[in-house]
């Protein structure tokens, strides 16, 4: 058992909570003071300007005030005249006091308008739902029964609970408290329930166990697991995993009992008519199973791989949030879990690291049994590298899902590298709708250099000027000019690279000192390298403009910007260099231990949003324009954040724009780029925010091809963190 330094059990103190005069209370108070004095922030110097407002809030708490609106807080602050805090200082005040536990304040759109000035109040809120049977009044026992059996809680029942005299303070702020409970993952909204946003599930209250008779049919199923490195996984993580699972996919209904198939540590969801999915929590392992109604060999690879990608993204976000609050956790640098494949070994289910699934066979070390890995490999189905990067004889080009996608900047960069100047001119003349000859001449005259720079600027100019730029248009232009369309297949494949370094080292983020020698050896491929590493063409154009005559400075800035991206690792860098045929410079990268500067993406790091790309790719022009012009997105962003399809950084990048329509464009761009489940959550958010007509139109388009195409993988596996199920919607809308 690993040591838990945050647990203190010496001295042992036994307190009679019914006796106010119990002598042990004095001992307990003394011990609490000692713990407080040992707090790392105890003794820190605080701004004296904070004192008046702190005293005012303390007096309000003594008067039994629980919550203040921001307007009320601002009015109180103004009473302090010269000691009044500026807006920036007030934000700092809230942040510091929240960290100290004196108040509760979340700078999220649905929560930032209120402050809980008495943290004990939140305990009462939780106690109103998560409490023992004996504390439930008789007239509410039916609600409790429903909670324990299925986790169901209607909003009207929640409000009924808060009508009790002991919870009257909650009832006054009921809408804010509901948002708070959703934010804290205490309650969650299930996917596509007939009761809509008025139904919640409370996973931590479910006490019903799955019946032993409901065993998994191993002949129809494939398995994988997220095995957490921590010996004890915080319950909050497990409950949030349950909440995420049932908010993405619709819960199955038991044919036997007609109840939702959600249990205290397990749940079943329906993917489509042929596929179901189930999860089970066993210790520190989160097991996911996909089953086909007939046989596991009939499981559609894109369904399994897309489910895996979606869950991995969600679990990564959840884990990073919870584990990041513990400085003692050994999981703060790497992901706190390992992904494992599960194979039926006799009557048992045995697991092995997912990296071994690329091998044809795996031998179970416990049972000494050999197993084929073909079935489980479909969890990671993707466009793989082919021998000599050539397509098989029966390849007809990109599949429909890819053809309906909008090329990313890095795809344009890869294509530019495979085209001649003349070929680029030919397809540009086909692609550009407005005065292509004139625009081509302007690009040639304005480009500071020739070669790759003209080609990438031309392709990007086409993408930037087109609302519906797609791989389909690129492929058609190549066909029309009799240029090999399989160049598009090549740019959609993962690069094949054998690494010399251990896998765990490749997952680290390089420090400046690790790559300080690279700028001397990249040469004139800096622009291409930046795009391949994930920087946008606009960013690269700005870098080039800032360092017109200094190529080395350009390379340095590219690497510095890249290192701040969330997926910046040695592996990404090595693959990019290998793709650009710069493998020779790998020898200039150092890997000394202790030099890996794990640069975190700060909460103020903004993701550049290109408004021109947000004009509704994949939507009819009229529908996209209505979304851009007519919606208010604050509540929509709240909903999307609670369902883990938008992060705080995403929200900041959207809300950085002053005009509402520009914010709407940025949101629409992210929805289109990410695909499912972001698209479906966006539709649900529109509905609960009152935009029912828009939501119905979007849902109508998305359902046009039936459930059999509900899950289609559209993103290359290298785009980790983006769940690409949007191909269907793009070509249908």
Number of helices: 31
Neighbour order of strands in the largest sheet: 6-7-8-9-5-10-11
Percent of residues in helices comes to 40-55%
Question: Can you summarize the main beta sheet?
Answer: 7 strands, antiparallel
Keywords: Repeat
Domain CARD: 604-687
Protein name: Death domain-containing protein
Domain Death: 511-593
Q: Could you give a quick summary of the protein structure above?
A:
By secondary structure, this protein is of the alpha+beta class.
Write the layout of secondary structure elements.
Elements: H1 24-37, H2 50-62, E1 67-69, H3 70-78, H4 87-99, E2 114-116, H5 120-129, H6 141-150, E3 152-154, H7 155-161, H8 168-172, H9 174-183, E4 199-201, E5 221-228, H10 235-248, E6 250-251, E7 266-270, E8 275-282, E9 285-292, H11 301-323, E10 337-345, E11 348-353, E12 361-363, E13 370-372, H12 374-377, H13 400-403, H14 409-418, H15 421-431, H16 436-446, H17 452-465, H18 471-480, H19 486-491, H20 503-506, H21 526-532, H22 537-546, H23 551-563, H24 570-579, H25 621-630, H26 634-642, H27 648-655, H28 660-674, H29 678-688, H30 692-702, H31 727-732
Antiparallel strand pairs: 1-2, 3-4, 5-9, 5-10, 6-7, 7-8, 8-9, 10-11, 12-13
Helix pairs in contact: 10-11, 14-17, 15-17, 15-18, 21-23, 22-23, 25-28, 26-29, 29-30
Describe this structure in words.
With 733 residues, the chain is an alpha+beta fold. It folds into six domains: 24-118, Winged helix-like DNA-binding domain superfamily/Winged helix DNA-binding domain (Arc Repressor Mutant, subunit A, Orthogonal Bundle), CATH 1.10.10; 122-205, Orthogonal Bundle (Arc Repressor Mutant, subunit A); 218-380, TATA-Binding Protein, CATH 3.30.310; 387-491, Death Domain, Fas, CATH 1.10.533; 503-588, Death Domain, Fas (Orthogonal Bundle); 611-732, Death Domain, Fas. It has 31 helices and 13 strands. The strands form four sheets. It has a seven-stranded antiparallel β-sheet with strand order 6-7-8-9-5-10-11. Strands 1-2 form a two-stranded antiparallel ribbon. The model is unreliable at 324-333, 593-618 and 704-733 (pLDDT under 50). Keywords: Repeat.
